Amino acid sequence: MTEQAARKPFLYIVVCAAGIAADVSKLITAAQERDWEVGVIATPVAMNGFFDTAAVEAQTGRPIRSAWRTPGEPRPFPAPDAVVVAPATFNTVNKWAAGIADTLALGTLCEVAGLGVPVAVLPCVADALASHPAYRDSLERLRGMGVRFGQPYTGEPDEDGGRPEFGWERALDLVERG
Ligand SMILES: Cc1cc2nc3c(=O)[nH]c(=O)nc-3n(C[C@H](O)[C@H](O)[C@H](O)COP(=O)(O)O)c2cc1C
To answer: Which residues form the Flavoprotein domain (predicted)?
Structure first.
């Protein structure tokens, strides 16, 4: 088998600055179990204490990408076969839908619209923010671009005081749907 034929499909996981990002290793584990090679791209705010960056780098075997590379540097990851944004914040969803590309995460997301690869998003957005009309417009615009969304998740405790499960694996189901 050639090296090209043996290559596992490459999944970008874009991590935003939501509290639930602390559990992103669950998504990485699930993706690796499904035979994805994983590269993590995080927003600059997410790099600032929202998840264990050293553990994620050890888990993926690759540096997390957050800052722009310099013009002379090679692209750090292969082109993606699929992209998952989890967790996705209110801020990143709105900026992405508006075509703003002022972080590596957003630039990557804006660009994948033209690559024809599956893109799945698991938002973590409180109900109060989700009711903002700009957010509703952003979801509609991204859906119109073919982006696939998991169930809304507010990050808030349920009636029992527990926190509902964040459906990490749903993102993989969505990109594997074909
Ligand atoms: C502890 C903490 C938890 C947060 N959780 C969320 C969240 O679940 N969803 C969200 O949209 N914003 C959340 N925020 C606010 C975002 O971090 C903030 O809007 C930030 O600008 C998002 O940046 P990013 O989209 O570039 O990652 C949280 C902030 C803090 C300090």
So the answer is: 13-142
Smallest CA separation from ligand 1 atom 17, residue: 17
Instruction: Show the DSSP H helices in the chain as ranges.
Output: 3-6, 24-33, 53-60, 90-97, 104-112, 127-130, 133-144, 168-176
Atom of ligand 1 nearest to the CA of 103: 26
Using alpha carbons, select from 173, 170, 176 the residue that is nearest to residue 151.
170
pLDDT the model gives residue 2: 53
- Taking Cα atoms as reference points, which of 28, 16, 38, 39 lies closest to residue 122? 16
Residue pLDDT, tens place only, 143-178: 999 999 999 999 888 888 888 899 999 999 999 986
How far, in Å, from the CA of 2 to the mean position of ligand 1?
43
Architecture of the structural domain at 3-71+79-176: 3-Layer(aba) Sandwich (3.40)
Q: What is the mean pLDDT of residues 56-62?
A: 97
Q: Are 47 and 73 spatial neighbours (Cβ–Cβ below 8 Å)?
A: no
